[in-house]
Amino acid sequence: MRSFDKYRDVKYLQQSDVAKDKLLTIKAVTEEDVSSNDRPEKMKFVIHFEERGFLPWVANVGSLKKIAEIAGTGDVDRWPGTVIVVYVNPDVEFAGEVKGGIRCRAPKNQPPVNEQPPATQPSVPNPDWVGEDPALPPEDDIPF
């Protein structure tokens, strides 16, 4: 389908840019004023991608929560390198009307980080820890 959208002067990813599911890698997350000239300042998180040809995406709170789940952290500074699938959900409502919207999910066969088994870490003593050594029996017989 040909669309006039390609001739619009747009700064951010639009539904028409996502004809089918796209596997994308997050390059950066910025905070930008996404308001138009006739509206007050409106700061939002904007997702930038490594892949060429994809404009930055102004993700809504639901999509940001999904990315946090996929990345395993809500710290947006640790999201670069996270791979997501961006797609259009035609059932998204806006202002009481079904208009569709851009959404994201984890790639197939890659569960979100918080669903993956935790990585095992070698047991290393913490030199700053103050307390009993769990490997030793409790010191219950101290007379004070």
Task: State the helicity in percent bands.
Answer: under 10%
Question: What's the mean pLDDT score?
Answer: 80
Distance between the termini: 83 Å
Elements, N to C (H/E): EEEHEEEE
Number of domains: 1
Helix-strand category: mainly beta
Q: Please list the strands of the largest sheet in the order they lie side by side.
A: 3-2-1-4-7
Biggest sheet statistics: 5 strands, antiparallel
- What's the tally of helices? 1
* Beta-strand segment tally: 7
Strand content: 25-35%
Provide an overview of this structure.
- It contains one helix and seven strands, in the order E-E-E-H-E-E-E-E.
- It is mainly beta and 144 residues long.
- The chain has one domain.
- The longest helix is centred in the middle third of the chain and has 11 residues, at 61-71.
- The mean pLDDT is 80.
Short descriptors:
about 140 residues, mainly beta, 5-stranded antiparallel beta sheet, two-stranded antiparallel ribbon, globular
Question: Summary?
Answer:
This protein has 144 residues and is mainly beta. It has one helix at 61-71; strands at residues 22-33, 43-49, 57-58, 83-89, 93-94, 97-98, 101-105.
